[in-house]
Amino acid sequence: MKKLTEQEINDRLENFEGWEYSENTIHTSFEFENFKEAFTLMTRIAFEAEAQQHHPDWSNVYNQLEIKLSTHDAGGVTEKDFKMANAIEGIVNAD
Amino acid sequence: MKKLTEQEINDRLENFEGWEYSENTIHTSFEFENFKEAFTLMTRIAFEAEAQQHHPDWSNVYNQLEIKLSTHDAGGVTEKDFKMANAIEGIVNAD
């Protein structure tokens, strides 16, 4: 899986609201109603991550969720990250 | 819930292996076999956190889990954090 250039990343990010590129990752944050809602969404994302065998670097405190995606093997952001970002948006926006 | 002094925190930490006190939190990290194992444990901890209405500041990447506990209302570490830390140890070590 080939590391994308900054231009390729920024082009793709135009289709994603609330996602940014920095420090070799694409990242976003979400705020939910409470912890239970946040963890419910995390669980759905966890199943998707496991299915894609591509796992987020994420942190949670109460209703806040921060997600960073990068492809360690490629040393940067690849199409795998955008596939996962797209799945995350689908999960969060389906709720 | 009263904020504990540094002495009180360090006394209590003697009963916890792998936990440290810094920046007004008690914190630890765990390494699991893979993402599925890590998230399985996170789920058990999430139910406990919800039951105690005391939620961790935690982050995960693949098989790594970092957990920080503090009591925001008290501006530091309280008995609530040690109760939660104790529950987390019970969950992780039961596995």
From TrEMBL, chains A, B:
It catalyses: (4aS,6R)-4a-hydroxy-L-erythro-5,6,7,8-tetrahydrobiopterin = (6R)-L-erythro-6,7-dihydrobiopterin + H2O. It is an enzyme of class 4 (lyase). PANTHER family: PTERIN-4-ALPHA-CARBINOLAMINE DEHYDRATASE. CDD domains: PCD_DCoH_subfamily_b. Belongs to the pterin-4-alpha-carbinolamine dehydratase family. This is Putative pterin-4-alpha-carbinolamine dehydratase. Its EC number is 4.2.1.96. Pfam families: Pterin_4a. The keyword tRNA processing does not apply. GO terms for molecular function: 4-alpha-hydroxytetrahydrobiopterin dehydratase activity. One of its GO terms (biological process) is tetrahydrobiopterin biosynthetic process. Keywords: Lyase.
